């Protein structure tokens, strides 16, 4: 079942088109990664999903309801963590968490809240003005995860967290999936996205240009190869071969999927002594799209 | 409706929780100042004769400009004195309270991203701004009732219950009006500073417009809501209908603010933010140039504001003669044989000069306090981490503030001088200009105190209290009959009162010496203390 779905979402600020067509969907019990360079439109999309900004065109639904018209109803069942959390300076972290949960119309489950604060090592008795960035982030995370929600919208939620806390966050997200909840995770920490997400959407210049599971995306791209051969390696063609480097010992390069079989034949003929291959990481995928982006610009 | 106003109540309670001390302090101060001054006036002017003497001393254009027209002068009882001396002043304080709290809960909340957090929850789109409206309506109902009951409880014959409550309601109406103005400004400006700036611009214009209207152009005061509440002639005629006018306009403005809030995108302002240059100029790359550039806009704004302030006063100097001619008693009072029209005008020039320069001190102190503001916002660290020493930073800020003081005082002096020369025959531009410039050393003493607070890293309120005290000495010192030593605590009282008195170098040199010594201590303290962030 689809929890969140957008189609041809567009947004204009004045005469600047920030979103030109965002198609995104998140199913039940699914973690979807939402990645893209700065200024590509991630936060704008998320704000539209939260009913804070009104879309200029297209459609966005959460739980089958319109994100703008039914915002109040939808918000009872979603939790949002922004990447840059600012709190009310003269109130404590504990007060802020309770307030945010109460506003959702839920009573505060003190046990669950306490467990989360313990896990994140957050001192809730301190005034918000004394919190560091990481601690403010923890306040927002505790407030989001102590409520009962069906969809979590997280916009760079781990910025400012240390690696231990980041792992804690990852555990939490996986627990939520195990409970059948859905997560939309926007992040620049690509290893985190790769590790957590069932599916990934890449946004560039206000449009989703790629989406699918990690293996779907890998199909579209190149494989890393490192080979050592007896005879000098001569490849039949140069189309589809990238970042070719020769070392004293062997050859390192990347191959497009459609020429892989030709390349393998050539390697076999040269008498292979060693071969290593690695699937492209999300970072490679991302960099590739990003570089194309810069090339265009 | 739910989509717009869901959860107004909890958001309102949340705002109240953040503001509980702030509101308590403002409300208690406003009520206390009102009730205590009424008591003070009663003690100072027990007899009819005393009050009539006061009446004569306040009947001049400068005072009218500052306080509004005096009603019921023939029967100048405690009620009428309160209405004349305190009503406008307290109304302005109430307006400032509104401007600051409304900005805090609207544009500041939005620009810091806290609004987004609230809006991601099942709250209506207009819940935050509506909560702010409810917040202020309730606060001002409390204020009206508290001031009304407070003044009634004094059981003064001259303050009827109706007058007491009209006084309270009048203040609250102005509070609500400026809450509405600020809510509207928050839709137009893109930052909280911009919002406060716009709202203060409206407040200052409203004050200046009614000042001009009260003195010379009768109908002009009807263009200012501050003029409207003065038209209630509270305690004297007790007219209620101008309050209705203020509240109606407040309602309309609130409605427009809500409408604009509903229409615009979060974070956006209707007045667009401009683009800036690609590179830092040579000038901006120096520590001094950088500091000046950071303050450039406020320098220009304050210079323009004080020019207008000075010009307004200058333009009414000519009216002084008319006033004296109209009022027989005043001639007797001032002993017109000895004091020709010219001398009388000079007397006013010297009194206005103090008031103007006290106002001009505000931006100078603010300019000095920029340094602590930068520190609090963690913007000093990257600067100190370069080859810039702390004392150089401090001295640069003091130097910029000194230049700032010269600019704003000159602007006021030029405004008042030009208009004064035009409106009064025989009044020289230079006489007026010198009178104001002579107060610069007093401003520098205030500046050095501000520097000391920066050096200490705390107690910044000290400078404001001291400046407030200096203002009270000039503003109410006469009416409250302070003993001489209390006046002398203010540096502004040390300056020779040109053009009436002659210029003496001794006071000027002592003031400058005090300023230099205190500033040096401030620099040493600043160098030694830890930076906080």
From TrEMBL, chain A:
| GO molecular-function term, one example from the UniProt record | ATP binding
Q: Which residues form the ABC transporter domain?
A: 4-230
Against PROSITE patterns, the record matches this protein to: ABC_TRANSPORTER_1 (PS00211), ABC_TRANSPORTER_2 (PS50893)
Question: Which Pfam families does the record associate with it?
Answer: ABC_tran (PF00005), DrrA1-3_C (PF13732)
Asked if the Swiss-Prot or TrEMBL record annotates the protein with the keyword Acyltransferase, the reply is no
Q: Which InterPro entries match?
A: AAA+_ATPase (IPR003593), ABC_transporter-like_ATP-bd (IPR003439), ABC_transporter-like_CS (IPR017871), ABC_Transporter_VariousFunc (IPR051782), DrrA1/2-like_C (IPR025302), P-loop_NTPase (IPR027417)
Q: Which UniProt keywords apply?
A: ATP-binding, Nucleotide-binding, Transport
PANTHER family from the xrefs? ABC TRANSPORTER ATP-BINDING PROTEIN ALBC-RELATED
Protein name as annotated: ABC-2 type transport system ATP-binding protein
Species annotation: Alkalibacillus flavidus
TrEMBL record, chain B:
What organism does the UniProt record list as the source?
Alkalibacillus flavidus
The protein's name is ABC-2 type transport system permease protein
Question: Does the UniProt entry include the keyword Membrane?
Answer: yes
What UniProt keywords apply to this chain's record, in alphabetical order? Membrane, Transmembrane, Transmembrane helix
Q: Which domain of life is it from?
A: Bacteria
Q: Give me the segments passing through the membrane.
A: 23-41, 78-103, 124-152, 164-184, 196-213, 240-262, 348-372, 393-416, 436-457, 464-482, 502-526
């Amino acid at each position: 079942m689809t929890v969140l779905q957008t189609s041809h979402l567009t947004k204009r600020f004045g005469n600047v088109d920030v979103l030109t067509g965002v198609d995104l969907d998140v199913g039940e019990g699914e973690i979807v990664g939402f990645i893209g360079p700065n200024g590509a439109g991630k936060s704008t999309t998320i704000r539209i999903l939260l009913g804070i900004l009104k879309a200029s065109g297209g459609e966005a639904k959460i739980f089958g309801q319109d994100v703008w018209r039914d915002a109040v109803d939808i918000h009872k069942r979603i939790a949002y963590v922004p990447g840059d959390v600012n709190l009310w300076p003269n109130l404590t972290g504990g007060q802020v968490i309770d307030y945010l949960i109460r506003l959702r119309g839920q009573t505060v489950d003190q046990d669950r809240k306490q467990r989360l604060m313990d896990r994140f090592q957050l001192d809730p008795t301190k005034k918000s003005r004394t919190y560091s960035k990481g601690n403010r982030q923890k306040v927002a995370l505790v407030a989001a995860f102590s409520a009962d929600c069906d969809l979590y919208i997280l916009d760079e939620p781990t910025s400012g967290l240390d690696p231990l806390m980041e792992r804690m966050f990852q555990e939490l997200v996986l627990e939520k999936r195990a409970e059948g909840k859905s997560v939309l995770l926007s992040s620049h920490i690509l290893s985190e996205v790769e590790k957590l997400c069932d599916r990934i959407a890449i946004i560039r210049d206000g449009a989703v240009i790629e989406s699918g599971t990690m293996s779907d995306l890998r199909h579209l791209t190149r494989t890393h190869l490192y080979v050592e051969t007896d005879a000098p390696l001569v490849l039949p063609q140069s189309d589809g071969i990238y970042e070719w480097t020769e070392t004293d010992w062997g050859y390192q390069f990347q191959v497009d999927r459609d020429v892989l079989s030709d390349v393998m034949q050539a390697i076999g003929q040269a008498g292979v002594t060693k071969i290593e291959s690695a699937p492209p990481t999300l970072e490679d995928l991302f960099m590739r799209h990003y570089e194309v982006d810069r090339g265009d610009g | 409706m739910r989509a717009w106003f869901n959860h107004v109540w909890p958001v309102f309670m949340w705002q109240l929780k953040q503001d509980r001390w702030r509101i308590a302090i403002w409300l208690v101060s406003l009520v206390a100042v009102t009730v205590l001054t009424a008591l003070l006036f009663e003690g100072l002017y027990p007899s009819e004769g005393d009050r009539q003497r006061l009446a004569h001393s306040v009947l001049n254009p400068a005072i009218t400009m500052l306080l509004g027209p005096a009603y019921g002068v023939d029967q100048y009882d405690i009620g009428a004195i309160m209405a004349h001396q305190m009503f406008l002043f307290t109304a302005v304080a109430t307006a400032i309270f509104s401007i600051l709290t409304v900005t805090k809960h609207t544009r500041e909340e939005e620009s810091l991203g806290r609004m987004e957090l609230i809006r991601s929850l099942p709250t209506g789109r207009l819940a935050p701004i509506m909560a702010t409206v409810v917040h202020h309506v309730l606060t001002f109902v409390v204020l009206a009732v508290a001031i009304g009951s407070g003044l009634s409880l004094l059981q003064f014959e001259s303050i009827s219950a109706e007058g007491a409550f009209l006084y309270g309601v009048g203040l609250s109406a102005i509070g609500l009006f400026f809450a509405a103005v600020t809510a509207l400004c928050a839709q137009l400006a893109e930052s909280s500073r911009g919002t406060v700036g716009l709202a203060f611009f409206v407040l200052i214009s409203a004050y200046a417009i009614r000042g001009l209207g009260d003195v010379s152009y009768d109908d002009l005061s009807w263009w200012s809501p501050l003029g409207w509440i003065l038209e209630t002639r509270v305690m004297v005629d007790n007219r209620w209908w101008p309050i209705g006018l203020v509240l109606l306009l407040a309602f309309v403005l609130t409605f427009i603010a809500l409408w604009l809030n509903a229409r615009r995108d979060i974070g956006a302002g209707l007045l667009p933010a401009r683009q800036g240059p690609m590179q830092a100029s040579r000038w901006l790359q120096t520590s001094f140039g950088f500091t000046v550039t950071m303050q450039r806009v406020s320098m220009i704004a304050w210079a323009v504001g004080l020019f207008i302030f000075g010009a307004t006063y200058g333009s009414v100097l000519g009216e002084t003669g008319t006033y004296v001619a109209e009022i027989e008693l005043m001639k007797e009072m001032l002993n017109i044989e000895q004091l020709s029209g010219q001398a009388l005008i000079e007397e006013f020039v010297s009194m206005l000069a103090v008031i103007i320069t006290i106002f001009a001190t505000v931006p100078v102190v603010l300019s000095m306090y920029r340094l602590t503001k930068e520190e609090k916002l963690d913007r000093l660290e990257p600067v100190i981490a370069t080859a810039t020493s702390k004392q150089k930073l401090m001295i640069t800020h003091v130097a910029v503030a000194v230049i700032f003081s010269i600019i704003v005082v000159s602007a006021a002096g030029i405004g008042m001088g030009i208009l004064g020369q035009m409106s009064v025959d025989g009044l020289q531009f230079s006489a007026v200009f010198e009178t104001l410039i002579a107060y610069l050393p007093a401003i520098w003493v205030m500046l050095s105190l501000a520097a000391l607070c920066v050096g200490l890293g705390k107690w910044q309120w000290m400078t404001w209290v001291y400046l407030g005290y200096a203002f009270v000495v000039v503003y109410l010192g006469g009416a409250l009959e302070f003993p001489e030593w209390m006046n002398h605590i203010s540096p502004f009282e040390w300056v020779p009162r040109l053009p009436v008195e002659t210029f003496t170098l001794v006071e000027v040199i002592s003031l400058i010496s005090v300023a230099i010594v205190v500033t040096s201590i401030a620099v040493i303290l600043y160098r030694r203390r830890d930076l906080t962030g």
